[in-house]
């Protein structure tokens, strides 16, 4: 049986917490898609193409992980790529509550889809893309929060980044 999962997110920018969830998910499935979503409710710092490239550079060591850009419903991506499982990373009880509601909506739209909630490692529990963007704008050292390819992209947007 070919076990195919996907991990959707905005990834603006990808953090080490995202990479942690991806690496652990890749060990559980034959194929994992990381889906860089076009979220119409978010104003992103990076273009979808930049986010895809950052993610590809950050996970190039994983042979069974593929990065795709997608605009639309997550369940439509799952159907198109024969994904039976959606991975959702969670850091806190609030994350879980929000993700649980979305998971139940997705189950209504696509009952065959299973959702796995995967908590990030404790060392990455406080990482949020929005906080990283704010910290880097003020010159904070974020090198231990994002993969090195992401830091390169952040330095292009914020020369004071390190």
Q: What keyword list fits this structure?
A:
19% strand; 162 residues; 5 strands; five-stranded parallel β-sheet; alpha/beta; 6 helices; globular
Write the layout of secondary structure elements.
Elements: E1 4-9, H1 16-26, E2 31-37, H2 48-58, E3 65-70, H3 74-80, E4 85-90, H4 93-109, E5 114-119, H5 129-137, H6 148-157
Parallel strand pairs: 1-2, 1-4, 2-3, 4-5
End-to-end separation in angstroms reads 45 Å
Q: What is the helix/strand order?
A: EHEHEHEHEHH
User: Could you give the order of strands across the largest sheet?
Assistant: 3-2-1-4-5
Question: Helical region count?
Answer: 6
Note the beta-strand portion: 15-25%
Q: Which class best fits the helix and strand makeup?
A: alpha/beta
Shape: globular
Give a description of the structure.
- With 162 residues, the chain is α/β, with parallel strands linked by helices.
- It contains six helices and five strands.
- It has helices spanning 16-26, 48-58, 74-80, 93-109, 129-137, 148-157; strands spanning 4-9, 31-37, 65-70, 85-90, 114-119.
- It has a five-stranded parallel β-sheet, sandwiched between helices.
- β1, α1 (16-26) and β2 form a beta-alpha-beta unit.
- The chain is globular.
- The termini are far apart.
């Amino acid at each position: 049986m070919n076990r195919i999962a996907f991990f959707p997110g905005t990834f603006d920018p990808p953090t080490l917490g995202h990479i942690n969830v991806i690496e652990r998910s890749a060990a559980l499935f034959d194929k994992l898609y990381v889906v860089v979503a076009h979220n119409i409710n978010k104003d992103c710092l990076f273009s979808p193409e930049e986010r895809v490239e950052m993610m590809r550079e950050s996970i190039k060591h994983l042979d069974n992980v593929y990065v795709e850009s997608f605009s639309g419903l997550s369940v439509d991506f799952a159907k198109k790529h024969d994904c039976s499982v959606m991975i959702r990373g969670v850091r806190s009880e609030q994350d879980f509550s929000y993700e649980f509601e979305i998971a139940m909506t997705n189950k209504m739209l696509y009952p065959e889809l299973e959702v796995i909630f995967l908590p990030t490692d404790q060392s990455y529990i406080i990482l949020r893309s929005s906080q990283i963007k704010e910290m880097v704008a003020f010159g904070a050292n974020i090198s231990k929060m994002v993969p090195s390819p992401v830091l390169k992209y952040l330095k292009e947007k914020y020369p004071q980044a390190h």
